[in-house]
Amino acid sequence: MVKIGVFDSGIGGQAIADKLHDLFPAAKIISVNDSANVPYGNRHRGSIIQMTEDAIKPLIKKKCDVIVIACNTATTNAIDDIRKKHPSIHFVGIEPMIKPAAKLTQTKTIAVFATTGTLKSHRYHQLKHRWASQLVVLEPDCSQWATRIENGEAERIDIHSAISEVKRWNADVIVLGCTHYHHIKDRIERAAGPGIHVLEPSDAIGARLDAILSTNSELPE
Ligand code: DGL
């Protein structure tokens, strides 16, 4: 039986793990988080790398065949180091969906909702440079959202100023660049209204895993 590990700093990985359960019913899904250190989003890169390294140890110990880093902050800051350290393990990362957003936008303006740690990362800047250099990319302040979602206050987060910014600049795509925000996707969609697409990566992660599992014959079925 194939073992899929899922890591997020906190409850952001839950939605991804649920989706993987549905898509791969025969797989064993093992989730871990780092409740002692969440949120990662306001921390320095070095700490994010070290904490991610420590937090995924149980998944490595349990010999997961694939490990999903279900955290944009950890992926954009730490996945290169982690891959180097564990070359025999397949890692699937989650990072802001700039490329699909760039393909979708008609107004040439997109918004990325993400943590400070993601927005500051080199990887995120590379993505923007590669796929969105001709676009306006809005990055409203969402820096407290993950903490509030973690504290069970998702319904009380004031999303109004982020959505107003999106509408003021006529952005037509919002990228959910933090898996915690999947918990408020419905609210964001309702506030954004029908003309604005809200992108999140669960389907893409499912497809990526499917490709890895079907092309690596050494992995168990
Ligand atoms: N869920 C994480 C992400 O996708 C971030 C939350 C945090 O700040 O730890 O970026």
| Class based on secondary structure composition and strand pairing | alpha/beta
Mean pLDDT: 96
Count of all domains: 2
Distance between the termini: 6 Å
Describe this structure as you would to a colleague:
With 221 residues, this protein is an alpha/beta fold. The protein has 2 domains: 3-95 and 202-215, Rossmann fold (3-Layer(aba) Sandwich); 98-199, Rossmann fold. Helix content is 46%, strand content 15%. It contains 11 helices and 8 strands. The strands form 2 sheets. A 4-stranded parallel beta sheet has the order 2-1-3-4, sandwiched between helices. A 4-stranded parallel beta sheet has the order 6-5-7-8, with helices on both faces. α1 crosses α11 (202-215). The termini are close together. The model has no long low-confidence stretch (mean pLDDT 96). D-glutamic acid binds next to α4.
